[in-house]
Design brief:
By secondary structure, this protein is α+β, with helices and mostly antiparallel strands. It has helices at residues 48-52, 64-74, 91-102, 111-119, 164-175, 190-203, 217-220, and strands at residues 4-5, 19-22, 25-31, 37-44, 82-85, 123-128, 131-140, 148-155, 181-185, 206-210, 229-234. The strands form two sheets. The protein has a seven-stranded mixed sheet, with helices on both faces. It has a four-stranded mixed sheet with strand order 1-2-3-4, with no helix packed on it. Strand 6 (123-128) and strand 7 (131-140) form a beta hairpin.
């Protein structure tokens, strides 16, 4: 069990907790074969000013990075997508933002919110030859009996209908093989409904609609009043 402390001091050898936060550096402690304990940096929390470097400028028409990415999407190769866990540091938070921007009805979120989800190891990124084309955000419920809540699957329009969405769902589900899966969709989102059905089939499981109050809106990543339906895949 991991325990978070802020008293880990200056890293290294004296770290008694399983992991500790010192300044902005997160250290993880390990026990070696001889019983010795050592620490290594596992991630680096990003400050607001560092994250600001990845913000899109205003007006957005001045955002040359965004334009360059859109050009890459327009010339996307037919290669298969590769998946990886999103990394902390700001760049992947920005990549999530790019995808949120072009994947209505998903809405762009603050970079710090995206970064926070990445820090919690909830995000899987999809890339085609280094170009970010999709991501999935999922979170296991707090108790062991709770499902895995798949909150967002986003695939850039230029990369759709090539199996990327399904691969992202499969990767998220593989991290929590014992949990059922819960998701929410708007009834007119034909692509998401089709993908979810297809995903359940790929697991050899049933998907069924459940009353909206079955799960907390926050767990599903939705807001009350947006007309969502919720679904349960029993494994
Ligand atoms: C929903 C979304 C993630 C699907 O991504 P994708 O990469 O195109 O999905 P896949 O290629 O893996 O397709 C999975 C299945 O859904 C079907 N599907 C995908 N888009 C479809 C569409 N527009 N109409 C009908 N079926 C569709 C595919 O045919 C496939 O089934 P098949 O294997 O039987 O052919 C993508 O359309 C998207 O990002 N939409 C905007 C954001 C969104 O609505 N996200 C979901 C809610 S968070």
């Amino acid at each position: 069990m991991f325990r978070r402390t802020t008293d880990g001091g200056d890293a290294g050898e004296q770290c008694a907790a399983d992991w500790c936060l010192s300044g902005r550096l997160l250290y993880e402690s390990h026990v070696t074969g001889t019983g010795a304990r050592y620490c290594s940096i596992v991630t680096q929390s990003v400050s607001g000013s560092e994250l600001a470097k990845f913000e899109s400028p205003w007006p957005m028409s001045r955002d040359t990075d965004l334009e360059a990415w859109k050009q890459q999407l327009a010339n996307l190769s037919q290669a298969n997508a590769s998946l990886r866990p999103a990394k902390t540091g700001g760049q992947d938070a920005r990549r999530m933002w790019d995808l949120q921007l072009v994947c209505a009805p998903i809405q762009p979120r603050f970079l710090r919110d995206n970064e926070s989800e990445i820090e919690k190891e909830r995000v899987v990124m999809a890339e085609i030859e280094g170009v970010h084309v999709g991501f999935c955000l999922s979170a296991p419920g707090p108790s062991e009996a709770d499902p895995l809540f798949v909150q967002v699957v986003a695939v850039a329009p230029e990369a759709r209908k090539r199996g990327v969405g399904l691969s992202l769902l499969s990767a998220a589900a593989a991290k929590e093989p014992l949990r059922d899966i819960a998701l929410a969709t708007q009834p007119d989102n034909v692509a998401a409904l089709a993908m979810n059905e297809r995903f359940a089939v790929s697991l050899g499981a049933n998907i069924r609609r459940v009353p909206l109050g079955t799960f907390r809106h926050g767990d599903l990543g939705i807001r009350r009043g947006d007309g969502y339906r919720s679904w349960h895949i029993q494994r």
